[in-house]
Design brief:
globular, 6-stranded mixed sheet, alpha+beta, about 30% strand, 2 domains, about 475 residues
Length: about 475
């Protein structure tokens, strides 16, 4: 159920340094110092100085007097706060801007996440984070920092070697949730569960699999099997999965027999999915004649291995349903002709979940494709426009009505965050200009990554949160 709030304020986007201090449960402002220790930790509880220019002091709410937060070492905040079903969720897209060493940038990113969470006024836990790095050699440094920051409450963490655009060494997409009424289960580095009000959310990963000289098909088959085994450890199945992410090294590279690595991933995924009927998911709504698969992103990385992760949902609640969405102007990926892959990619264009009066729509990785063909080859700006057009049509109310949910829908403004994958670093600014014009202040991370076709220059994924209007009962028949 929604919190008591105007439906148009279901979520709020923030960009820039914080200007509203956090409030504690006791009704007094929590002091935070934005000056850092030499080891780049924020000073807990303020620095103790009454005249610190970097400190936001503990004035009472009643006084109405609050020091403005000055410019500081924290990066710009780009996050969305979403309130529904009695919970607060925060989507954070953090790209540091301090420069300096990788360690400096990583500390800035983690400290920015911490500052955002302290503004929420309730206990929060980071549940999952995707860490984009420019160099695989920097991952051990990031792990040390995360160990210090999170301790035993480590979120499920994925390291993806996709250089953040703009020249920085790290960017982090992190999701956090209020923990007053949520049970968080930490089941090791590759599995985390959330339980609240009869719903269980399962974040699972098989980690990074690199089988040396094994073929892309063998590597992919092993990765899917490993991910299925992780899910089974908490009595879940792939039929419970609503969203999948696949990060494949050298995605468009050809194997010795001349077959593209991504096509072999698709063949392995098809073979694995033959063991599952996603339409049997008790939450699945009628698919109106098309196949049912999870939403998915398949994107390249600079490592040769394969990273797999997924989100699954389990519940007996009667007000929860999921619906796989297809785009009216695109051929469904699972119906692509063999010229694109010996066995077609098995994913839906989006997966939507209705929970009471709330709609969540996970948008798969989307590119400049109409029907099954790439359009606007060589023009990143036009490809970005077409990609956003595709997303807009996919999540529109008209498309939900077409597929049986006539009270649902979303717009680009309902996106809580986006990831933008840009094939060539030189195209970053042109791509970002289109995204900022079309999406405004929606939090985003831009990463350089190879898209699954040689002629595709950009791919965008996201998640939208939108209200479902309450229906009034039909008037009595006279």
């Amino acid at each position: 159920m929604f919190k008591a709030q105007n439906l148009t304020n279901l979520k709020s986007n923030m960009s820039g340094n914080p200007t509203t201090p956090p409030v504690s449960t006791s009704g007094r402002l929590q002091p935070i110092c934005y000056r850092m220790h030499p080891d780049r930790r924020l000073l807990d509880g303020g620095c103790g100085s009454s005249d610190c220019d970097h400190c936001q002091h503990a004035e009472s709410e009643e006084s109405g007097h609050v020091h403005e937060v000055p410019p500081c070492l924290l990066g710009l905040q780009h996050h969305t706060t979403i309130g529904y079903d009695g919970l607060t969720r925060v989507a954070m897209m953090i790209t540091p801007d301090c420069g300096g060493s990788f360690r400096d940038q990583a500390w800035e990113a983690v400290s920015t996440i911490r500052a955002i969470l302290r503004q929420q006024g309730e206990p929060m836990a980071v549940t999952v984070q995707t860490v984009f790095v420019a160099e695989a050699a920097d991952v051990p440094v990031a792990r040390q920092i995360f160990d210090a920051a999170y301790g035993e409450e480590m979120p499920l963490t994925l390291f993806v070697v996709q250089p953040p655009c703009g020249g920085v060494g790290i960017a982090i997409e992190a999701w956090a949730i209020s923990t007053r009424t949520v049970s968080v289960g930490y089941h090791g580095p590759h599995l985390l569960t959330l339980e609240h009000d009869g719903i269980r959310w399962i974040h699972a990963s098989a980690g990074t699999l690199n089988l040396g000289k094994r073929t892309a098909y063998e590597q992919s088959a092993e990765a899917f099997a490993a991910l299925g085994k992780v899910l089974s450890g908490v009595h879940a199945s792939f039929t419970d999965v609503v969203r999948v992410w696949l990060y494949q090294g050298n995605i468009t590279e050809e194997e010795e027999d001349g077959t593209e690595r991504y096509r072999e991933l698709n063949r392995a995924r098809t073979d694995f999915f033959e063991n599952y009927d996603f339409a049997t998911n008790p939450l699945a709504a009628t698919a109106h004649g098309h196949a049912v698969y999870p939403a998915s992103t398949g994107i390249g990385t600079l490592e040769h291995g394969l990273i797999t992760t997924c989100l699954a949902v389990q519940t007996d609640r009667k007000d929860v349903r999921v619906l796989s969405l297809e785009n009216p102007q695109q051929t469904s990926a699972f119906d692509y002709p063999k010229e694109y892959s010996r066995k077609s990619p098995k994913f839906s264009r989006a997966m939507a979940m209705r929970l009471g009066n709330h709609l969540t729509t996970w948008v798969s990785g989307t590119a400049s494709i109409v029907n099954a063909e790439t359009v606007h080859p060589g023009d990143v700006a036009k490809q970005t426009e077409q990609t956003l057009d595709n997303i807009e049509k996919l999540i529109a109310a008209e498309n939900f009505t077409r597929q049986g949910w006539d009270d649902c829908g979303a717009t680009l403004a309902d996106l809580a965050k986006v990831r933008v994958y840009v094939k060539h670093a030189k195209d970053f600014e042109a791509c970002r200009a289109v995204c900022e014009r079309r999406l405004g202040r929606i939090p985003a991370i831009y990463a350089q990554a190879d898209v699954c076709r040689p002629d595709l220059l950009v791919e965008i994924e996201g998640v939208a949160f939108s209200p479902i209007p309450r229906r009034l009962p039909d008037p009595p028949t006279p």
